[in-house]
Amino acid sequence: MCGIVAYIGPEKAGPILFDTLKRLEYRGYDSAGVAIRSDGEIQVLKSAGRIGDLEKVYVGMGMPGDTVGIGHTRWATHGKPSDKNAHPFISGDIAIVHNGIIENYLELRDLLTQAGFEFKSETDSEVLAHLIKMYYHGDLADAVTKAINRVEGSYAVAVVSASSPYLVCARKDSPLVLGIGKDANYVASDVAALLPYTRDIVRMKDGEIVLLYGSKEIEIRDLSGITQTFQTEKIDWNIDAAERGGYPHFMLKEIHEQPRALQETFAGRISEIDGDVQLDLGRTNEEIESLERVSIIACGTSYHAGLLGKYLIPRAAGLPVDVEVASEFQHIQLRPRTLVLGITQSGETADTMISLKKSKTCGVGRLAITNVVGSTVTGLVDGTIYTRCGPEIGVAATKTFTGQLAALFLLAIRLGRARNHLTPDQGRKMLVELTRLPGLVQSVLDKREEIRKVAEEYAGAGCYFFIGRDFLYPIALEGALKMKEIAYIPSEGYAGGELKHGPLALITEKTPVVAMATCGRKIQSNIKEVRARGADVIAFATEGDPDIDKVASTVIELPRTRPVYSAVLCTVGVQLLAYYTAAKLGLPIDKPRNLAKCVTVE
Ligand code: AGP
Fold first, then answer.
1. Which sequence positions are flagged as catalytic?
2. Residue-range domains of the chain with CATH
3. Other C-beta atoms within 10 Å of 422: how many?
4. Does ligand 1 lie within 6 Å of residue 301's CB atom?
């Protein structure tokens, strides 16, 4: 995710802004910038690349500016990484930094263009700078309130003006904390940035607007201007723990970021009224209608996401799908009316890149699902669906996988609607249920203690089995991969129906079996098969299922949703199971042995 910092107090703002920005570097970024008040003007310094390089420029300029400023590290979601897309954005004597997604930015951009504002970037954030400027007549808090009342989407925003005695910040669905110093105030999107300066923080709530003055004074208002009370919290984390948001590992933090990441994947793309989805697929409805096949290529966890596409897209869009591990992709067989879909969170995996390049020679359409704006894969395809999960630091993919599943749900509905395979009403029903998913994922996360106990009970197992059928077969594979990757326990992922064709020979009373049981009843026969061989079965099942207790030894209940969406809920369950197993075994969860986050060799 992008990072925000701000400072107002007695010291020179520049050095503090650069120092706090560097404390956010661990989150990953592609560009950085600061806006500092200087002799009654706002001076902006920003560029693509490293904060350290930008700081050298600042020092070379003689460290201009006075005691008020804002800063930002950007991780691109709208518009590629570049100098002009870096924050802060300026409009007259106002500068802003923004995290989140402005869903109605196109509409606001038109309105502001007609009002004479000139846009210099490809970002959604720049509309906020001009909108605040449009409303600014000497009262910055009032202007920010009016502007954000026009905005749909999510934001954490910090605003500075050359002529205002205070800084303003506001938040909705994107984190922002205030740091209360001895005689200064700070703002950051992440506590880690503030710890050397203060341990007294206030966590902002959605719908709050804060005025920060250059003394200890702060005022918090709601969106109607009514002053709010607030509580200060003392942080006793060390810097390492703060970077992980207080979680012991990045992987656990990223697992918990999934509700928010899913909201970002959906933001601005769903039209419930039309029962349709807006995506950049790089092709017209007519071209989509004429497609004959989708060929998915990916590696590892991304391949498992692709496998879910194989169950999903034929049903939603009437298109056959094949899925290939990228290193085994046989491009020779591609026919012209095929859409090749590369799925890769990093956008850099060598096997996937090479296969996509080879597929070009067959004259097929190409599309990517990735998490990284401007990554290599985006240059190889006609259209890209960004998952917008924010950077993932743990080597084991978690939030980027559920982001890929969410992107596939959107893609399947878009293809289905474009090909008239889904009616508007069918699309609408699927989308209404889809928007519940972030909340349902949160309910699974709320069961972490229950899952931790199960994980610890079986942490000594020599071998694990994960089974599922239909939409849940890919999740069985993903559960087994997670257990192998971070807990180093040999684990098999199987389609339930395949057990009796061989692997049943491995099942004993020492082989815990994890059954994904939220989709259809046939899996219960497979549970009985392994129970008859003495195995314990941990079942992820839909709450209120009348029969599952009779067959499984442990049942973890998940909220009710469409079977296909329950794949996401089961995913969160197996992620937590693998995580707590590895934690119990004391393993280096974020950096498992022999593995790299991005595999750039064939
Ligand atoms: C997942 O936990 C793994 N780290 C790995 O399998 C990964 O999914 C694979 O290397 C593909 O990476 P990509 O999504 O960046 O292409």
1. 2, 597
2. 3-243 (3.60.20.10), 252-435 (3.40.50.10490), 444-584 (3.40.50.10490)
3. 24
4. yes
